[in-house]
Amino acid sequence: MVRIVTDSGAHLPPELFRQYAITVVPLVVNIGGRTYYEGEDLDLETFYRYLQTSPTLPTTSQPPVGRFYETYRQLSEEGHPILSIHLSSALSGTYASAVAAREMLPEAEIHVVDTRWISVPQGMLVLEAARMARAGATAREILERLEFMRTRMVFYFVLDTLEYLAKGGRVSNIQALMGNLLQLKPILKLHEGRIEAHERVRTTQRARARLLELIREYARGRRDLRIGVMHTRLPEVAEAIARALEEELRPAEIIVAEAGPAVATHAGPGGLGLACYGSEE
Predict the structure, then answer these.
(1) What is the CATH number of domain 153-280?
(2) How far apart are CA 281 and CA 90, in angstroms?
């Protein structure tokens, strides 16, 4: 059976990773001169206390090549083909680390995928791959399905502030300043693996309402809808939005997941994102 590997930039409820035996290689978060591995020795409560009280922002980096190598070596020695599915190479060196590890095991069957996504859309692709693998699909069949889904997904999100993206180099300080001074809430999107501005609205309430409108617009005329709701410290808001979308759109599946420390370093608390996949009628 094909074994699925991903990185902790893929956000799904933890029970789904366990249920489908998905191997998660942790991203690295550096805090106060110490190195932590997301999901192993850094919990969200500790992370947010540091994020909100420290004058310096945590930094993030890709998993070491050695972590991928050991994962691939163990799985390949058990006789499994490997499909390793990762966050956008435009945002992280994770894909490059995975490729480097694959080159160290030339006899193993290892396929490394740059999803061009992060967070819940990445998680949705990982979950689809894991389900197909469990059903007996080949690596090639899974790769073809992932490519089909990858190019038909959308992911929009709004952050409480652009401060964290600016500090992490994801947007300019001028953009962050203007957004905060004018009380504008930019709606951002992931496009071709990069973060881009989609539009700006005033107030958080309007921004969240607009996120829902964008998903409704995308979903019109599509079937087999899969929806992902990502949040950073907004569990009640995320669940309420999920319920509203479920009642209105009747998707085949809807997933709610909180972002881990590596993504939250750049998003900050108060972030909300909606991802959707659907095939055309």
Answers:
(1) 3.30.1180.10
(2) 31
